Amino acid sequence: MKLLDYAWNTATSVSQRDHNSLRLILDEELSYPLLSRDTRGYVIRLPVPRRVKGGFYMLHGLYFDEDETSWTSLWRLFKASLYHTSLHAAYSDFQSYSAWAKEKDLTASTFTVALIEDVKITMEAARRWQGLLSDIAYANYISSLRITNPDDIGNRPLRFATKLLTKVFGVCREAKDTSEEDFIVNNLAKGVTSLVRESINNKQQQSSLLLEAAQGVYTSLSKQGILREIPSLPYTEAHGKCSVFDSRLVEQDGESDNLIQSACHALGLEGTTHILEPAAVTVGEADEFRRETRTTEQSLNALRERYNGLIAPTKLDSVEIPKGDYGMFLRVRAAMSGPIRSIRDRLRQIRNVSDETPGHESGQVDTQAAIQVIASESVRSDIFQREEFVHKDEAWAILIDSSKSISTFAHEVKGIATCLAEVAKDLIPSRNRWGLFGFNNSLQIIKDFQEPYSIECKARIGGLTQQYSTLLPDAMLACYKALSAIPVDNRILMVVSDGYPTGYANIEKTLVSTVEKISKSGVLLMGVGADNPAIRDYFTVSCVLENPYQMMKFFAKSYLELSSMF
Question: Does residue 351 form part of some domain?
């Protein structure tokens, strides 16, 4: 099970959106989920478990061991986070609060809207996606164990907001002495829940009912003072720094059962045993999740280590693997679907002409087969042999400029990378005979030679950004070394750039000497100017192209011509 594949399919299924209005990014550097919008729709950014010192893993700011129980908890919290943000993409319209929030305190109004919408999507899930609720209830329960006691929060408005948040979801750890503040929180939580439920049942008045609930929360919260930070349950989208939840679980004697029962009751779930004791299928998924995480971790570490050795003699800062953005890749590929289809059709026609067809009545006669036909007096036409050209193996490395200097061509860079990758996978039969890389101050591994052209590689294309300097000769040298390790007779390095190397003194001279060194090694160099003729100053074999379709045609033509020569 590929984690990105699972997450993307789940998000699109729950949200009922596709790549046109949804993007999903898995980011190991994140601690908490983020939810935002671009010009088309929602952008979901989810943290994935990352290894920290001492053999622990961290997710949502919480530390986990490497045992089976911990990984089951990790898996369920990740799913809860995925479900929660996907439900927002399905049912939330934050823009409907914009007029109401105008001239209100930003922090208090943000907390208010987030709370109302969190309650709303949870109730929508209870009506339409009940299968998601057990993991969400479990995540709510775990969140409650990360607060020792809400009354210990010294800041009054933060304490009030935290109590209200946890009370609404049934996981508020009850204080020993019920205060006036708790009385207000309890009544407010009931009022919010009632109004949101009514808004779901009455779509015609939904907006007004939600705004009524929001006004009630905002008014009560404002009376407490100025809210300096926004509390949010750790598996839900973060709104900045939140100091409320600890990085460890704190469970007091006898309260676990009460908390889990309350968490389930708040979501309308009957029975609680299956919440703390997950079904075998969940445990099996968690085990597969653990194996996939470890395998990916080991593979990427080995990849970084190998390429770190290759860039050591250069001035490149680091080796990077771009953050995946599969939704963006799908958008770019959809926009280029016509040209891609055109190139594929042309390649298919060429193959139909050149490939050997069994029984085709042309070519040289197979003498032995002809004798057998005559002796048996049978009617057969498969006695002809077509001559085949025997090509030597070749390997291609494609290096694409992703520096700041090409930012005016930024949209086309993703298009170029997408088109080249889609054509390369059809043209070059062996997946380990082509690699795709980007560069700026760092070398970016989009597809290593040994990697399949998988959903992860496609997502990396979608995540390409343009920034920093153009260390072209250094990236070429590292790419050349990686290409040289491929056991083939012929090697081609295609460089797509604006042709303006930057980053240190005399880099132009370094580029000239690098081109000369690589050319003398027998590697064929091809320079492609991305809407700029400057590339011709350095490469003997070069061309200038203005768009991804021209790039595709050039690549396919070059591949077929070179293959016939080798």
Answer: no
* Residue 266 domain-assigned (yes or no): yes
- The Cα-based distances of 505 to 136, 428, 471, 510 in angstroms read 56, 38, 11, 9
Q: What is the pTM of this model?
A: 0.88
Same domain (yes/no): 418, 547: yes
Q: Are residues 131 and 227 both part of a single domain?
A: yes
Instruction: Kindly state whether residues 256 and 370 are assigned to the same domain.
Output: no
The reply to whether 557 and 416 lie within a common domain is yes
For residues 373 and 332, membership in a common domain is answered with no
Shortest CA distance to 553 belongs to which of 344, 361, 325?
A: 344
Same domain, 334 and 362: no
Instruction: Give the 3-state secondary structure of 345-376.
Output: HHHHHHHHHHCCCCCCCCCEECHHHHHHHHHH
End-to-end CA distance of the chain: 40
For residue 124, which phi and psi values (nearest 5 degrees)? -65, -40
The answer to whether residue 310 sits within a structural domain is: no
Angle between helices 507-520 and 472-484 in degrees, nearest 10: 20
DSSP helix/strand/coil, 453? coil
Percent of the chain at pLDDT > 90 equals 62
Residue 138's domain spans which residues? 69-84+91-286
The residue ranking higher by pLDDT, 456 or 262, is: 456
Q: List residues bridging with 439 in a β-sheet.
A: 401, 443
pLDDT tens for residues 2-27? 899 999 999 999 999 999 999 999 99
**Into how many domains does the chain fold?**
3
Two structure tokens written together for 9: 């399919």
**Residue indicated by tokens 């898995």:** 26
Cα(159)–Cα(169) distance, integer angstroms: 16
Question: Residue 517: is its pLDDT beyond 50?
Answer: yes
